[in-house]
Amino acid sequence: MNQNPGIYGRKVGNTQLYTPEGNVSRVTVVQAGPIHVLNKRTPEKDGYTALVYGFEERKEKHTTKPMMGQFKKANTAPRRVVKELRCSPEFAAKFEVGAEVKLDQIFEVGMFVDARGTTRGRGFTGVVRRWGFAGGVQTHGTHEYRRHGGSIGTNMTPGRTLPNIKMGGQYGNETMSTLNLKISRIDVDKHLLMIEGGIPGAKGGLVLIRTAVKKHKQNKK
């Protein structure tokens, strides 16, 4: 189970930054906050350790009574997004219920992170767009088969279409992760993370940013 520290946010868009050496760095901006701790999971009560985050305020009349009880216990306003992230007991001990989570308490410039988001849905697409097929021959009498996938099986043996044959179908709208992205800048006051490279998802999409799993040793430096 991944217990690396992380935070949820909204993908704002892309821009570029200039490094002190004069190079251009393409970054993705993530609005991660203000975020408050709504609850804490403990091994004694729940069997594991986790923090329950809440951000983006919502009207009280649009909030159910059970959720309002949770927000009142944390002494915070109702939140639109409530997410739970597992973490180590040492990390959870840094925060109290109702406290605001600052970006510099989790991340630092130069740290590597993993970004997870939901890719843009593209509906039902054919094999050319979905899998990058070349399509059929465009000339020599080709008729209605220019963007088809071609043969999908054999004749007598095995006499059926084998599993995992690439065909047209639903494309996009799936959870994907991009690993080992570097943090270029952190704006604590505006709750902004600027991360080198691209992050899955459309503008305004919900993303999860966690310290990198495969570069954990570098993050400790």
Describe the secondary-structure layout.
Layout: E1 6-18, E2 24-31, E3 35-41, E4 50-57, H1 65-73, E5 79-86, H2 89-92, E6 100-101, E7 112-118, E8 124-125, H3 127-131, E9 169-170, E10 175-187, E11 192-196, E12 206-211, H4 216-219
Antiparallel strand pairs: 1-2, 1-12, 2-11, 3-4, 3-6, 4-5, 7-10, 7-12, 8-9, 10-11
Explained architecture:
The structure is a single chain. Helices cover 10% and strands 37% of the residues. The chain has four helices and twelve strands, in the order E-E-E-E-H-E-H-E-E-E-H-E-E-E-E-H. The protein is mainly beta and 221 residues long. The strands form three sheets. It has a six-stranded antiparallel barrel with strand order 1-2-11-10-7-12. The chain is elongated. It folds into two domains: 6-121 and 177-219, Elongation Factor Tu (Ef-tu), domain 3, CATH 2.40.30; 123-171, no CATH class.
First and last CA, distance: 23 Å
Helix content: under 10%
Residue stretches low in confidence (pLDDT < 50, at least 5 long) are none
Question: Strands of the biggest beta sheet: in what spatial order?
Answer: 1-2-11-10-7-12
At the third CATH level, what is the topology name of the largest domain?
Elongation Factor Tu (Ef-tu), domain 3
Q: How many individual domains? A: 2
Shape: elongated
Q: Structural class from helices and strands?
A: mainly beta
* Counted beta strands: 12
Mean pLDDT: 88
Q: What radius of gyration results from the CA coordinates? A: 23 Å
* Total count of helical runs of at least 4 residues: 4
Specify the CATH class of the largest domain: Mainly Beta
Tell me the name of the CATH homologous superfamily of the largest domain. Translation factors
Q: How would you characterize the largest beta sheet? A: 6 strands, antiparallel, barrel
The portion of residues forming beta strands comes to 35-45%
Tell me which oligomeric state these chains represent.
Answer: single chain
CATH architecture descriptor of the largest domain: Beta Barrel
Taken in chain order, the helices and strands follow as: EEEEHEHEEEHEEEEH
